[in-house]
# Entry
Amino acid sequence: MKFNWGTGIVVTIIAFIAFIMYFVITMSTDNTYSHDLVTDKYYQEELNYQQEIDAEKNANRLKEKVTIEKNSKGLKIEFPKSFTPRNIEGKVFLYRPSNKQLDFEIPISISKSYLLVPEQRLVDGRWNMKIFWKHKNTNYLIKKELVY
# Structure
């Protein structure tokens, strides 16, 4: 068999198709390339987005801001002193972009002006935090990215 331009082009096309098939099969079956949506209820959360915008504006208008600091016991979230701790209701949601299994939510139920997220729940790395709370029928929302 003689190897000429026509044979070379056919071999090249077959090799290219084999490479693309290998790539497609590898990407669709390998779990390391699995990327999920941020949330399973994506469309439902999209409908509530305007409420989130309003709650963020309310939080930005506060004279005394919420502070987040890392200490030896975990992550301390301190609410403004002007708020009565018993009247604060809400939740803290910590989202780990690299691992869905590490995500968790803590309800806000405090007697002092701060909430402590235990250190054993937090793995070193990047976290996205949403603090949503309500005080006297006003909603507040803070979104932070932090590295623990």
In short: The chain has three helices and seven strands. The helical segments are 5-29, 42-47, 49-61. Strands lie at 67-71, 74-78, 89-95, 104-108, 114-118, 126-135, 138-147. The longest helix spans residues 5-29.
